[in-house]
Known about the structure:
Layout: H1 3-85, H2 94-171
Helix pairs in contact: 1-2
Amino acid sequence: xxxxxxxxxxxxxxxxxxxxxxxxxxxxxxxxxxxxxxxxxxxxxxxxxxxxxxxxxxxxxxxxxxxxxxxxxxxxxxxxxxxxxxxxxxxxxxxxxxxxxxxxxxxxxxxxxxxxxxxxxxxxxxxxxxxxxxxxxxxxxxxxxxxxxxxxxxxxxxxxxxxxxxxxxxxxxxx
Length: 175
């Protein structure tokens, strides 16, 4: 092989390695951008979950106030009206025991509702943490892909220089 052909072949090999390296860098950057986009979509869910938490807690507060009013008006009021209509003294005895039992039952129902609201909030917190971890994992996957593409590009560049050296060495240019 002539010296000119060897130099052209070596140059082509080097340019091919550089081109391959640049393409790998672009592919790695694209993989990272895609992973970041996916992570941002996942993180959007965190905000939606927080809004859901706010709505649930506001509904709980409203329901608690309404339940207390309904209990006083309907349950205790009905019991008082019934005993009063029957002409029973409500300051002691059975009427007071009935009102106290009603109040205990209402307190229990409110405790259960509060517990259920707390459990819902814990579930939302778990979902938010899961979304954070999924977003972080998506970004890490993008970084890993980017790193793999970069390594592939560097290997192509090294291979291009190695092939160029082999071409020049085989041509007898330096003999």
